[in-house]
Write a structure and sequence with these properties.
By secondary structure, this protein is an alpha+beta fold. It has 7 helices and 6 strands, in the order αββααααββαββα. The chain has a single domain, classed as Jann2411-like domain (Jann2411-like fold), CATH 1.10.3300.10. It is about 45% helix and about 15% strand.
């Protein structure tokens, strides 16, 4: 899986997964710089610009850290950390949502209005609300496949991987490890042994 191939999950997960923890050369921060952030905003189809967020990068990263702590706890069915919840709740107030019932033909419908026109506040509010939705409506997993470690929504019982590609890669890695360890069918990959008497003085 390449950088940003995972986009399209709930916003909370897309945002949390801008830290990719299990890459071969170490964790990758996909929004570490302004140019990285610009790419993510574009690929994730987010209306805010880097100019909107430049003065609030510390807030953005603080919110991300809180969201990641909450998702990690949820993936293990642990109690949600109180401080992380407080941070998400605080950011949710930046873009309060008001719902009103309005006429619709002979019936009615409910419409929502966000009481903010600041792009940064709107993004923070959307992320916070998405996080609340994820934590209360779906099951969160962490993909254990090699070079992954991304959060994902568990959609069926027994789902371990975030994608078929990760599942296939994990099975290949497991099979290779068994062969190297001398499991059935893997004797050809056992480390060579020294000839008898080779270490005698």
């Amino acid at each position: 899986m390449e950088l940003f191939d995972w986009l399209g999950r709930p916003l909370a997960l897309d945002f949390a997964n801008t830290v990719w923890p299990a890459r071969r050369r170490g964790p990758v921060d996909a929004i570490a710089s302004i140019s990285d952030l610009r790419v993510w905003l574009d690929r994730a189809a987010i209306a805010a610009t880097t100019q909107d967020l430049e003065s609030r990068l510390d807030d953005l990263r603080g919110l991300r850290a809180a969201v990641r702590r909450l998702l990690a706890a949820a993936s293990k069915d642990d109690l949600l950390p109180r401080r992380a919840m407080e941070i998400v709740n605080l950011f949710a107030t930046e873009a309060p949502e008001v719902r009103q019932i309005v006429p619709d033909g002979k019936g009615s419908r409910v419409v929502s209005e966000i009481l903010s026109d600041d792009p940064a506040s709107l993004l923070f509010g959307r992320i916070a609300m998405s996080t609340m939705g994820v934590l209360t409506t779906v099951t969160v997993g962490v993909c254990p496949a090699p070079s992954c470690g991304l959060f994902f929504v568990v959609e069926r019982a027994g789902q371990h991987w975030c994608s078929n590609a990760c599942g296939n890669r994990a099975r290949v890695a497991r099979h290779a490890a068994k062969r190297y360890d001398g499991s059935p069918g893997g004797s050809e990959l056992r480390p060579p042994t020294a000839p008898a008497g080779a270490n005698r003085g």
